[in-house]
Amino acid sequence: MANLVSSWARNVDTVPENYVMPPNKRPSELVSIGSNIPVIDLAKVSSSTINHAGAGLVQEILKASQEFGLFQIINHGISEKLMDDVMDLFNEIFDMSVEEKEKFCSEVSNKSCKVYESGKMNDANVEEVRHWKDLFIQPVFPIEEQTQHWLENPARYRELVETYSSEVKKLSMRILELIGEGLGLKEGYFEELSKRQALVVNHYPPCPDPSLAMGVPAHCDPNLITFLQQQVYGLQILKDGHWIGVPTLPYAFVVNIGYQLQIISNNKLVSSEHRVVTNLKTGRTSIGTFVSPAEDCIVEPTKVLVNGGSPALFRTFKYQEFIDDYMGEKNHKKTLEAYKLQP
Q: What phi and psi values does residue 65 have, to the nearest 5 degrees?
């Protein structure tokens, strides 16, 4: 538990040796904030007309998912107060004493929500150099299977997390319906592919030398789709061989296309490669909602997009198989490649 960065970072003025990245993996100082990263305004469509949205909005989302694998959404309907309350809640959790956090440490807690030391999620991903973050994971849906194992303190935790997660679930289904409409899929196509949802909260304390450390290394998300709430800059994506910064928009959600959507769309959509850098003066907490298929769900390119002129590019598999391979492979790109059908 003493390895939690949030437990000691404020007491150091240099980056410990085991957090110093090799020179070829350190963040570049020349990364600029991207001004062309798509921003989707959901005020253009109401929930009552979500399945008959204007073609312009659907095409905006589809284009963003094809070219960037990432976009931001504004005017999404989730209240600013709720977003503030949940961010305050998780900042409070990371500010707890070592003794309090130890109660739900990954190695001792019987709770479904756990806090992990950097680089300690599983043996395959333990590296000699650690990343400058702590990680909190809370499975959310199916909610009836999870709530009895949730934290009891802070007292507002259960009500806030359930309310927030339910609202983000509704939002995720709205976005998936719009993506499905753009791909020509039937209404409700993604319902069976989005049965699991988890909160993944990363906390990055201020770092004494951001040029040496890394919050999260470059990767693509393995799940279906991710919704990220952030207040402080740190997220960067790889576009055309160059890293660009994702601007922080007040009360927006960053939407990441995951590998499963790339596979289901038969490569018509792409998963964004992204990373997180650290900050000298300001800590950063990001709240990610990961939407995924159930473990035994069958995933394959949708038959709507597969025909004689456009053959399936990926094999059929169970989601659990993909996740096991992803978590056991440091180079996540190799995981996706292993599921491609040979021409």
A: -70, -25
